[in-house]
Protein backbone atom coordinates (compact mmCIF):
# COMPACT_ATOMS: atom_id res chain seq x y z
CA UNK A 1 0.00 0.00 0.00
CA UNK A 2 2.84 2.40 0.83
CA UNK A 3 4.46 1.63 -2.52
CA UNK A 4 1.16 2.40 -4.26
CA UNK A 5 0.81 5.69 -2.36
CA UNK A 6 4.37 6.72 -3.21
CA UNK A 7 3.75 5.91 -6.87
CA UNK A 8 0.57 8.00 -6.84
CA UNK A 9 2.42 10.91 -5.23
CA UNK A 10 5.22 10.73 -7.79
CA UNK A 11 2.73 10.56 -10.65
CA UNK A 12 0.81 13.52 -9.24
CA UNK A 13 4.02 15.55 -8.98
CA UNK A 14 4.72 14.85 -12.66
CA UNK A 15 1.17 15.88 -13.53
CA UNK A 16 1.67 19.24 -11.83
CA UNK A 17 4.73 19.88 -13.99
CA UNK A 18 2.91 18.81 -17.14
CA UNK A 19 -0.12 20.90 -16.23
CA UNK A 20 1.93 24.04 -15.62
CA UNK A 21 3.65 23.51 -18.95
CA UNK A 22 0.31 23.07 -20.69
CA UNK A 23 -1.13 26.24 -19.15
CA UNK A 24 1.78 28.23 -20.59
CA UNK A 25 -0.19 28.16 -23.86
CA UNK A 26 -2.51 31.16 -23.91
CA UNK A 27 -5.29 31.91 -26.31
CA UNK A 28 -4.42 35.01 -28.29
CA UNK A 29 -7.08 37.74 -28.50
CA UNK A 30 -9.34 37.04 -31.45
CA UNK A 31 -8.06 33.49 -31.83
CA UNK A 32 -11.14 31.60 -32.98
CA UNK A 33 -11.73 27.92 -32.55
CA UNK A 34 -9.94 26.04 -35.32
CA UNK A 35 -12.16 23.02 -35.17
CA UNK A 36 -15.34 21.95 -36.83
CA UNK A 37 -18.11 20.10 -34.98
CA UNK A 38 -17.91 16.34 -35.27
CA UNK A 39 -21.13 16.07 -37.23
CA UNK A 40 -21.20 12.28 -37.27
CA UNK A 41 -21.15 12.27 -33.48
CA UNK A 42 -23.54 15.17 -32.99
CA UNK A 43 -26.09 13.52 -35.26
CA UNK A 44 -25.97 10.23 -33.38
CA UNK A 45 -28.94 9.50 -31.15
CA UNK A 46 -26.76 7.08 -29.17
CA UNK A 47 -24.69 9.84 -27.55
CA UNK A 48 -25.22 9.82 -23.77
CA UNK A 49 -25.41 12.94 -21.61
CA UNK A 50 -21.79 13.29 -20.47
CA UNK A 51 -22.64 15.68 -17.64
CA UNK A 52 -25.34 15.59 -14.99
CA UNK A 53 -25.76 16.84 -11.40
CA UNK A 54 -24.38 14.53 -8.74
CA UNK A 55 -26.50 11.54 -7.73
CA UNK A 56 -25.83 10.51 -4.14
CA UNK A 57 -25.42 6.80 -3.41
CA UNK A 58 -28.09 5.15 -1.25
CA UNK A 59 -27.38 4.67 2.43
CA UNK A 60 -25.98 8.10 3.17
CA UNK A 61 -27.39 11.51 3.94
CA UNK A 62 -28.66 13.62 1.06
CA UNK A 63 -26.28 16.08 -0.56
CA UNK A 64 -27.80 19.03 1.32
CA UNK A 65 -27.14 17.32 4.67
CA UNK A 66 -23.63 16.32 3.62
CA UNK A 67 -22.77 19.89 2.67
CA UNK A 68 -24.33 21.28 5.83
CA UNK A 69 -22.29 18.95 8.06
CA UNK A 70 -19.11 19.37 5.99
CA UNK A 71 -18.53 15.64 5.49
CA UNK A 72 -15.27 15.19 3.64
CA UNK A 73 -16.27 12.15 1.54
CA UNK A 74 -19.33 11.73 -0.66
CA UNK A 75 -20.34 8.46 -2.33
CA UNK A 76 -22.01 8.98 -5.68
CA UNK A 77 -23.61 6.81 -8.34
CA UNK A 78 -22.29 8.97 -11.18
CA UNK A 79 -19.48 11.32 -10.05
CA UNK A 80 -15.94 10.69 -8.83
CA UNK A 81 -13.22 13.24 -8.22
CA UNK A 82 -13.25 16.43 -6.14
CA UNK A 83 -15.60 19.34 -5.56
CA UNK A 84 -15.49 22.50 -3.45
CA UNK A 85 -18.36 24.39 -1.89
CA UNK A 86 -19.22 26.63 1.03
CA UNK A 87 -22.56 27.93 2.36
CA UNK A 88 -23.54 31.31 0.94
CA UNK A 89 -20.47 31.35 -1.35
CA UNK A 90 -20.38 31.37 -5.14
CA UNK A 91 -17.61 30.53 -7.59
CA UNK A 92 -16.31 32.32 -10.65
CA UNK A 93 -13.80 30.02 -12.30
CA UNK A 94 -12.48 26.46 -12.38
CA UNK A 95 -9.84 25.01 -14.68
CA UNK A 96 -7.68 21.91 -14.99
CA UNK A 97 -5.23 20.14 -17.26
CA UNK A 98 -5.63 16.43 -17.96
CA UNK A 99 -5.14 13.67 -20.50
CA UNK A 100 -7.79 11.92 -22.57
CA UNK A 101 -7.88 8.44 -21.00
CA UNK A 102 -7.83 5.22 -22.99
CA UNK A 103 -10.89 2.98 -22.75
CA UNK A 104 -10.89 -0.82 -22.95
CA UNK A 105 -13.88 -1.48 -25.19
CA UNK A 106 -13.13 -5.18 -25.54
CA UNK A 107 -13.51 -5.60 -21.79
CA UNK A 108 -16.38 -3.11 -21.28
CA UNK A 109 -18.45 -2.84 -24.48
CA UNK A 110 -21.42 -0.47 -24.59
CA UNK A 111 -20.08 1.65 -21.74
CA UNK A 112 -19.21 5.33 -21.31
CA UNK A 113 -17.20 7.84 -19.33
CA UNK A 114 -16.76 11.61 -19.28
CA UNK A 115 -14.09 13.79 -17.69
CA UNK A 116 -14.79 17.45 -17.10
CA UNK A 117 -14.56 20.66 -15.10
CA UNK A 118 -17.60 22.66 -14.12
CA UNK A 119 -19.58 24.92 -11.82
CA UNK A 120 -22.76 23.88 -9.99
CA UNK A 121 -24.24 20.38 -9.82
CA UNK A 122 -23.29 19.59 -6.22
CA UNK A 123 -26.72 20.02 -4.68
CA UNK A 124 -28.02 22.29 -7.44
CA UNK A 125 -30.13 21.57 -10.53
CA UNK A 126 -27.82 23.13 -13.11
CA UNK A 127 -24.28 22.35 -14.26
CA UNK A 128 -22.08 24.51 -16.48
CA UNK A 129 -19.39 22.18 -17.77
CA UNK A 130 -16.87 21.29 -20.46
CA UNK A 131 -14.78 18.18 -21.02
CA UNK A 132 -14.10 15.05 -23.04
CA UNK A 133 -15.98 11.78 -23.44
CA UNK A 134 -14.31 8.38 -23.73
CA UNK A 135 -16.73 5.58 -24.41
CA UNK A 136 -17.54 2.41 -26.26
CA UNK A 137 -20.25 2.02 -28.90
CA UNK A 138 -20.23 -1.74 -28.84
CA UNK A 139 -16.51 -2.47 -28.93
CA UNK A 140 -15.65 0.65 -30.95
CA UNK A 141 -14.03 3.44 -28.96
CA UNK A 142 -15.32 7.01 -29.28
CA UNK A 143 -13.48 10.08 -28.00
CA UNK A 144 -14.73 13.63 -28.36
CA UNK A 145 -14.75 17.05 -26.73
CA UNK A 146 -18.08 18.49 -25.59
CA UNK A 147 -19.74 21.21 -23.56
CA UNK A 148 -23.07 21.33 -21.79
CA UNK A 149 -25.25 23.83 -19.96
CA UNK A 150 -27.38 21.34 -18.06
CA UNK A 151 -30.37 20.86 -18.28
CA UNK A 152 -29.93 21.70 -21.97
CA UNK A 153 -28.58 18.97 -24.26
CA UNK A 154 -24.89 18.31 -24.72
CA UNK A 155 -23.05 19.82 -27.71
CA UNK A 156 -20.23 17.89 -29.38
CA UNK A 157 -17.28 20.01 -30.50
CA UNK A 158 -14.70 17.76 -32.17
CA UNK A 159 -13.02 14.38 -31.96
CA UNK A 160 -10.01 13.89 -29.70
CA UNK A 161 -7.55 11.03 -29.28
CA UNK A 162 -6.55 9.07 -26.19
CA UNK A 163 -3.38 10.42 -24.62
CA UNK A 164 -3.94 13.96 -25.86
CA UNK A 165 -3.33 16.76 -23.37
CA UNK A 166 -6.43 18.84 -22.59
CA UNK A 167 -6.99 22.23 -20.94
CA UNK A 168 -10.53 22.97 -19.83
CA UNK A 169 -12.08 25.88 -17.95
CA UNK A 170 -15.44 27.34 -16.98
CA UNK A 171 -15.57 31.05 -16.16
CA UNK A 172 -18.50 33.22 -15.11
CA UNK A 173 -18.41 36.66 -16.72
CA UNK A 174 -20.34 38.74 -14.19
CA UNK A 175 -20.45 41.81 -16.42
CA UNK A 176 -22.28 39.92 -19.17
CA UNK A 177 -23.98 37.43 -16.83
CA UNK A 178 -22.80 34.60 -19.04
CA UNK A 179 -20.54 31.57 -18.74
CA UNK A 180 -17.43 31.12 -20.87
CA UNK A 181 -16.66 27.45 -21.59
CA UNK A 182 -13.23 26.76 -23.06
CA UNK A 183 -11.35 23.65 -24.08
CA UNK A 184 -8.04 23.31 -25.87
CA UNK A 185 -6.46 20.11 -27.15
CA UNK A 186 -2.81 21.03 -26.59
CA UNK A 187 -1.63 18.05 -28.60
CA UNK A 188 -3.40 19.04 -31.82
CA UNK A 189 -4.07 22.75 -31.24
CA UNK A 190 -7.81 22.39 -31.77
CA UNK A 191 -9.89 24.48 -29.41
CA UNK A 192 -13.19 26.20 -28.83
CA UNK A 193 -14.65 28.92 -26.63
CA UNK A 194 -18.40 29.29 -26.04
CA UNK A 195 -20.09 32.15 -24.22
CA UNK A 196 -23.53 31.05 -23.05
CA UNK A 197 -26.17 32.23 -20.62
CA UNK A 198 -27.54 30.10 -17.79
CA UNK A 199 -29.78 27.31 -19.08
CA UNK A 200 -31.73 26.82 -15.84
CA UNK A 201 -34.04 29.04 -13.84
CA UNK A 202 -30.95 29.97 -11.81
CA UNK A 203 -27.24 29.14 -11.88
CA UNK A 204 -26.07 29.80 -8.34
CA UNK A 205 -22.44 28.75 -8.92
CA UNK A 206 -22.55 27.14 -5.49
CA UNK A 207 -19.81 24.63 -6.25
CA UNK A 208 -16.81 23.99 -8.48
CA UNK A 209 -15.63 20.51 -9.43
CA UNK A 210 -13.24 18.34 -11.43
CA UNK A 211 -14.98 15.08 -12.22
CA UNK A 212 -14.84 11.71 -13.94
CA UNK A 213 -18.41 10.59 -14.51
CA UNK A 214 -20.61 7.70 -15.51
CA UNK A 215 -22.86 9.50 -18.04
CA UNK A 216 -26.61 9.18 -18.19
CA UNK A 217 -29.00 8.28 -20.99
CA UNK A 218 -31.45 10.80 -22.41
CA UNK A 219 -34.02 9.32 -20.02
CA UNK A 220 -31.73 10.02 -17.03
CA UNK A 221 -30.58 6.42 -16.40
CA UNK A 222 -26.96 6.12 -15.30
CA UNK A 223 -25.05 4.12 -17.92
CA UNK A 224 -22.32 1.46 -17.46
CA UNK A 225 -18.93 3.01 -16.75
CA UNK A 226 -16.25 2.29 -19.35
CA UNK A 227 -12.88 0.96 -18.21
CA UNK A 228 -10.73 4.08 -18.57
CA UNK A 229 -8.05 2.70 -16.21
CA UNK A 230 -7.13 6.10 -14.77
CA UNK A 231 -7.95 9.74 -15.45
CA UNK A 232 -5.27 12.15 -14.25
CA UNK A 233 -5.86 15.84 -13.52
CA UNK A 234 -3.34 18.55 -12.65
CA UNK A 235 -2.96 22.32 -12.20
CA UNK A 236 -6.48 22.53 -10.81
CA UNK A 237 -7.37 26.13 -10.07
CA UNK A 238 -10.49 27.57 -8.43
CA UNK A 239 -11.58 31.19 -7.93
CA UNK A 240 -14.60 32.30 -5.94
CA UNK A 241 -16.81 35.33 -6.58
CA UNK A 242 -14.76 37.44 -4.15
CA UNK A 243 -11.59 36.78 -6.11
CA UNK A 244 -10.01 34.33 -3.66
CA UNK A 245 -7.87 31.92 -5.63
CA UNK A 246 -6.52 28.47 -4.79
CA UNK A 247 -6.48 24.79 -5.53
CA UNK A 248 -9.00 22.21 -4.39
CA UNK A 249 -7.72 22.72 -0.84
CA UNK A 250 -8.05 26.32 0.38
CA UNK A 251 -9.25 28.12 3.51
CA UNK A 252 -12.06 29.83 1.58
CA UNK A 253 -14.03 26.65 0.80
CA UNK A 254 -14.68 23.10 1.91
CA UNK A 255 -13.23 20.19 -0.07
CA UNK A 256 -15.18 17.02 -0.88
CA UNK A 257 -13.66 13.82 -2.17
CA UNK A 258 -16.24 12.01 -4.29
CA UNK A 259 -16.05 8.22 -4.61
CA UNK A 260 -17.97 6.50 -7.41
CA UNK A 261 -20.11 3.47 -6.56
CA UNK A 262 -22.11 1.10 -8.76
CA UNK A 263 -25.85 1.74 -8.94
CA UNK A 264 -26.58 -2.01 -8.75
CA UNK A 265 -23.71 -3.45 -6.69
CA UNK A 266 -22.86 -0.36 -4.58
CA UNK A 267 -19.22 -1.39 -4.86
CA UNK A 268 -16.56 1.22 -5.59
CA UNK A 269 -16.37 1.91 -9.33
CA UNK A 270 -14.03 4.91 -9.32
CA UNK A 271 -11.68 6.05 -6.55
CA UNK A 272 -9.81 9.36 -6.52
CA UNK A 273 -6.34 9.45 -5.01
CA UNK A 274 -5.39 11.91 -2.30
CA UNK A 275 -4.72 15.43 -3.54
CA UNK A 276 -1.13 16.39 -4.33
CA UNK A 277 -0.47 19.98 -3.25
CA UNK A 278 -4.19 20.58 -3.53
CA UNK A 279 -4.13 20.63 -7.32
CA UNK A 280 -3.43 17.18 -8.77
CA UNK A 281 -5.04 13.76 -8.46
CA UNK A 282 -6.03 10.69 -10.45
CA UNK A 283 -9.29 8.75 -10.53
CA UNK A 284 -8.89 4.96 -10.84
CA UNK A 285 -11.54 2.74 -12.43
CA UNK A 286 -12.47 -0.50 -10.63
CA UNK A 287 -13.93 -3.71 -12.06
CA UNK A 288 -17.30 -4.71 -10.64
CA UNK A 289 -17.82 -8.29 -9.47
Structure description:
The chain is mainly beta and 289 residues long. It has one domain (2-285): Sandwich (Jelly Rolls), CATH 2.60.120. Helices cover 11% and strands 39% of the residues. It has 3 helices and 16 strands. It has a 16-stranded mixed β-sheet that branches. A hairpin with a 2-residue loop joins β5 (127-137) and β6 (140-150). The longest helix has 21 residues, at 2-22. Residues 1-14 and 16-37 have low confidence and may be disordered.
Summarize the structure.
The protein is mainly beta and 289 residues long.
Keywords:
mainly beta, 289 residues, single chain, disordered N terminus
The CATH class name reads: Mainly Beta
Topology as H/E string?
HHHEEEEEEEEEEEEEEEE
- Which architecture name does CATH use? Sandwich
CATH topology: Jelly Rolls
Number of helices: 3
Amino acid sequence: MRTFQRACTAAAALLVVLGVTAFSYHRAPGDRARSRPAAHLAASTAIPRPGHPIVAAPGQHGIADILRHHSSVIHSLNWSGYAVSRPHASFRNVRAAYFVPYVDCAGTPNSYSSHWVGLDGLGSASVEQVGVAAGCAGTAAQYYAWYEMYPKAVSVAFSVHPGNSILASVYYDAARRKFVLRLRDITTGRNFSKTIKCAASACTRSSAEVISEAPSSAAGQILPLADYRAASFSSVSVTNARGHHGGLHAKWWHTYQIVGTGPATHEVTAQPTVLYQGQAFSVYWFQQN
